Amino acid sequence: MSWKVLIQLRKFATTQSATKSGKKLLEFNQIPGPKYYPFLGPLNDVMTLGKNEKLHLTVDEMHKKYGGIFRMKIDSIDTVFLSSADYIRSIFAYEGKYPKHPIPPAWMYFNQKYNIQRGLIFMNDEEWLNIRQVMNNFLLKDAEWSHKLIEMTCDNFTSKLKRILDSEDATVIENLEDELYLWSIYSILNLMLGSSTSEQTDREFDAKVWEFVNVVKKIFETSSKLMSIPPRLADKINMKVYKEFESYAHKSITLSRSLISILSNDMQSSENGLLRKMKSQNLSDEVIVRIFSDLIIAAGDTTVYTTLWLLHSIAKDAALSTKLRKDIGDNPKSMEAPLVRAALRETLRLYPVAPFIGRFIDTDAEIGNYSIPKGVLALASLYTSSRDPANFTDPLKFIPERWLRDENRQVMNPHASMPFAIGARSCVGKKIASYQIHSLITKILQQFTLESKNKEDVKLKLHLIGVPDKKIQIAFRKTLP
Ligand code: HEM
């Protein structure tokens, strides 16, 4: 052995630290990753991570270069990106009693600047746990109360589709995305109220909901553009995009207050609605408004884009439509068609609306061969792990059957795709979202045929969440009157 190799080995040994498991670990600063130039400050992020819209692709390239774990500073926070399924699972093992996730910097800055208290997404520590336990009871432990309401909202949607097709004699629904937004927001409103506030019953209310839809969309669009600029700086130099973001954020709060106040005064507000359920837990009106406006922010885009991707995948594949229709026919009770459930699972694998899920590590940790100090931000690179052939056979193909139990499973590692996250801070709306999407797809397939009109491949881009890079165009034809 040459003296050079001996020196290398010695260096290696002294930079390893012993751990609880007795395993020798490498230090945090030995994790590979791109170079950081302190004098460049925030410019480092822009230079290394590039365009925000393509962050998932840049990170994917970096995983190819550095492996299943790499390290960098983002906004001067020590961050690790993880794409190996085992590493991803470890993140949640170290999240602690009060898991903390990263919040887009513009949102954090805005809340602090105006001292605005927000809902579940922004809460932390004991306050978060108390509210989360209340919401878990209503949305996760027992969500059956929501089924009828969700189905009513889906029936309203398919009736509207038919009206559009009748009146315009058109097959392509040009504003499908907007229609889905309305559906998604009305779903939450109906759940709050406990009865169906269908569109067109009250013009003023409708106008407010429509305005809310646009405001929520703009919040995502503008805060995504602000990801690579420190918001304090953007505010100081009066950047147009920051001013726009602020005005939409203010509007969303005003609008959610006014929607809630209309709903609360509504005599039809039923025992079965989330509003009454929350009030029965002695939550103040102020806290209820905070929770409600964040539920809409969390529920709106995620449900809309997942549904759009799923409709797009079905519309492209006539054989899949036939199989899904047969499966729905064989399983007449809603939510019992296994292939529809599998198609949703497959959509969330290939097009995760949250391609990165993060946790601040709560205690000194071991991930892989590395020691990770408390406080580091660990980000699960779900876009990469979901498309890794080590985890899924033919990973780029849309194959719902891979999720069926009795099939020759093509899922080597289900944890590589965790679209709702896992653990105590995972999506509190996952049951509602799954039921909503499942019901809507079932009703659409029972009443319409779909055909994709997109000529080019539609890819995922980031607008804070994963959205299609082109307008999704689907021709609908009625199969039932
Ligand atoms: C397909 C649709 C959806 C997807 C893919 C999705 C995904 C997620 C993910 C990944 C998280 C966790 C973020 C983290 O761990 O840091 C989350 C959190 C959350 N989701 Fe969803 N979501 C969806 C629909 C919904 C719906 C319909 C609602 C409301 C009914 C909702 C309400 C929330 C809330 C309030 C949180 C924050 C929970 C907390 O911080 O304790 N989501 N969602």
Kindly list the characteristics that best describe this protein.
binds protoporphyrin IX containing FE, 481 residues, Cytochrome p450, Uridine Diphospho-n-acetylenolpyruvylglucosamine Reductase, domain 2, disordered N terminus, two-stranded antiparallel sheet, 11% strand, alpha+beta, 12 strands
- Low-confidence stretches are 1-16
The backbone outline, from C-alpha atoms, is globular
Order of helices and strands: HEEHHEEHHHHHHHHHHHHEEEEHHEEEE
Give the radius of gyration. 24 Å
Number of domains: 2
- Structural class based on helices, strands and sheet pairing: alpha+beta
Average pLDDT reading = 87
Description:
The protein is α+β, with helices and mostly antiparallel strands and 481 residues long. The protein has two domains: 16-102 and 355-418, Uridine Diphospho-n-acetylenolpyruvylglucosamine Reductase, domain 2, CATH 3.30.43; 117-351 and 423-481, Cytochrome p450. It has 17 helices and twelve strands. The protein has helices at 3-14, 43-49, 55-66, 85-93, 105-113, 125-141, 147-168, 176-193, 203-225, 231-236, 240-265, 274-279, 285-315, 318-330, 338-350, 382-386, 430-447, and strands at 16-18, 24-26, 69-74, 77-82, 356-360, 365-367, 370-372, 377-381, 448-452, 460-463, 465-468, 474-478. The strands form five sheets. It has a four-stranded mixed beta sheet, with helices on both faces. A hairpin with a 2-residue loop joins strand 3 and strand 4. Helix 7 runs antiparallel to helix 8 and helix 7 packs parallel to helix 17 (430-447). The chain is globular, with a radius of gyration of 24 Å. The relative contact order is 0.15. Protoporphyrin IX containing FE binds next to helix 13 and helix 17. This is Cytochrome P450. Heme binds at residue 427. Keywords: Heme, Iron, Metal-binding, Monooxygenase, Oxidoreductase. One of its GO terms (molecular function) is heme binding. InterPro entries: CYP11_CYP27_families, Cyt_P450, Cyt_P450_E_grp-I, Cyt_P450_sf.
